[in-house]
Design goal:
CATH architecture of the largest domain: 2-Layer Sandwich
Helix content: 25-40%
Low-confidence stretches: none
Shape: elongated
Mean pLDDT: 89
């Protein structure tokens, strides 16, 4: 959401940060629940660009972050950490692969993980 003040456009969540803290946010402001329309104070937190990226939803056809379908019918789970791709395993079910990714995301990204 954007708010226009004196002809300038500002992102609503950055203005909320300014209002609550009294200064402009020094870096990215991310949304705890992933809902960009929820600019309530308890939903906002400071984050690095990489942490913000971890909170994005998946765009793959399976609808599961970090999981791909192999030609043999199995599911491969992988995660990128510090610009390195880590293979988490190959699984017979989508649910098992998704769980492997979710566990690795929580381990590596903590509160910013969004499986």
């Amino acid at each position: 959401m954007q708010i226009t003040i004196d002809g300038r456009h500002y992102l609503a969540h950055r203005l909320a940060w300014l209002y609550m803290k009294g200064d402009w946010p020094p870096r990215c402001v991310s949304f705890r629940n992933g809902d960009r329309s929820d600019v309530s104070w308890q939903n906002l937190r400071l984050a690095s660009p990489r942490q913000t990226a971890q909170g994005r939803k998946t765009r793959n056809k399976l609808g599961v972050k970090g999981v791909t379908l192999k030609p043999c019918g199995n599911y491969a789970a992988q995660i990128a950490v510090n610009h390195r791709r880590l293979h988490l395993g190959t699984f017979t079910t989508l649910e098992a692969a998704a769980e492997a990714y979710a566990n690795a995301a929580r381990e590596h990204f903590g509160e910013f993980a969004r499986p």
